[in-house]
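If your schedule permits, I should be very grateful for your opinion on a structural question. I have a record of one protein: its chain in single-letter code and its fold written as discrete structure tokens. Would you kindly read the sequence against the tokens and tell me how you understand this chain to fold? Thank you for your consideration; the sequence and its tokens are set out here.


***
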Amino acid sequence: QVQLVESGGGLVQPGGSLRLSCAASGSIFSINDMGWYRQAPGKERELVAVVTGGGSTNYVDSVKGRFTISRDKALNTVDLQMNSLKFEDTAVYYCNSKITYYSGSYYYTGDYWGQGTQVTVSS
């Protein structure tokens, strides 16, 4: 099948930077959008940034100018560079993608999530 594996979370001071990475693996035929979501304690999960199959990007207003999403289509990876981090960026960050994979002669499309990586901004 398909798996998304994230890395790069951690503890950082306000104003600092972190880079999150997500790699998709498995019998992948194609990947459409790849995105990052986050969920803070007591809050709903929200879309942070997304990059389409065509390379267009979109960000939630609160991270515009600070975060940059990028993908490597050959490697099936998506990164999130986070700069000028704020206390309110503290959350568990999840990678998400809609992926078509093959199994034998058949193709299947599913919505996949990574396991989540904790980002904590604290002084």
Residues 83 and 98 are 27 Å apart (CA to CA). The radius of gyration is 15 Å. The chain is about 0% helix and 65% strand.
